[in-house]
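Translate structure to sequence.
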């Protein structure tokens, strides 16, 4: 158990270190981005936190017509905005994906420690004090700063603060998607089973489904027992070099979804050969866009 926690902690630290660069915030002068270098600022009415939204608009976007667009919300916007915006621009050259609005959601932390603590809280569905203490020690973060179990409040923030703000200020339609990686992937899975109607498309990449003894499986089973349906397109991915610790819980979750035979649920999965938890990020980001918003996807 200690070895697993150490490996995961090292992975998350590397993600924070690698992607925490000034370029991750740049929205610059591109006409298809909006906001300032600081992004839109949103104050949650549920967890009292502040978030930044970075918005990438399709080239066809104009306030002078009646067109409205699907929206893909992407977690960990501190680094994911630059990646998704750049990949979309390349795919647009060949008209390989639909015109969509991309909204990257970032926390308001100013350093690696803050970033880790905020996402750790927002993306975990339950409070596990023992894990909080172990991760704090492994990551050299002051005791008490890591607090798990804030996913419900962040989901309320997403549903009742962030989405309404975007709908008010941009030409959106009801076709919404959500994508996340690692702990972010865990949160996307949590949204799928807790609010299955909130989004129509889900990108669940290298999800930390091992959290709290595969708690996500219990949540999915509870949904099935309630007789609720899932009508959505879901893309699952991971890097082959992430190993069984990451991949086995994903397989268990997808198998459970298949066994419960949700009407309207369309699943696609991919394991990227030769990719690690970190190196898989560009591949899974590109594939998420292609699978969920490909030019021929309904």
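Result:
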């Amino acid at each position: 158990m200690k070895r697993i926690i150490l490996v995961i902690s090292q992975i998350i630290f590397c993600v924070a270190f690698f992607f925490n660069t000034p370029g991750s915030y740049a929205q610059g002068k591109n006409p298809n981005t909006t906001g300032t270098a600081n992004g839109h600022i949103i104050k949650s009415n549920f967890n009292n936190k502040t978030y930044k939204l970075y918005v990438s608009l399709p080239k066809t976007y104009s306030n002078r017509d009646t067109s409205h667009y699907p929206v893909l919300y992407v977690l960990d916007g501190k680094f994911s905005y630059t990646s998704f915006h750049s990949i979309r621009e390349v795919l647009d050259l060949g008209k390989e994906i639909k015109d969509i609005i991309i909204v990257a959601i970032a926390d308001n932390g100013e350093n690696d420690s803050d970033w880790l603590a905020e996402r750790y809280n927002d993306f975990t569905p339950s409070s596990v004090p023992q894990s909080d203490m172990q991760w704090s020690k492994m990551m050299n973060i002051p005791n008490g700063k890591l607090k798990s179990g804030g996913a419900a409040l962040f989901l309320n923030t997403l549903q009742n603060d962030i989405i309404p703000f975007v709908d008010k200020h941009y030409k959106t339609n009801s076709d919404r998607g959500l994508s996340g990686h690692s702990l972010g992937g865990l949160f996307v899975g949590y949204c799928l089973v807790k609010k299955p109607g909130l989004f129509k498309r889900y990108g669940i990449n290298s999800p930390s489904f091992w959290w709290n003894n595969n708690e996500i499986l219990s949540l999915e089973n509870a949904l099935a027992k309630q007789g609720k349906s899932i009508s959505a397109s879901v893309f699952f991915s991971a890097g082959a070099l992430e190993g069984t610790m990451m991949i086995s819980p994903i397989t268990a979750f997808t198998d459970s979804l298949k066994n419960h035979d949700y009407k309207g649920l369309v699943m696609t999965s991919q394991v990227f050969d030769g990719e690690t938890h970190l190196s898989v990020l560009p591949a899974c980001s590109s594939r998420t866009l292609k699978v969920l918003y490909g030019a021929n996807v309904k």
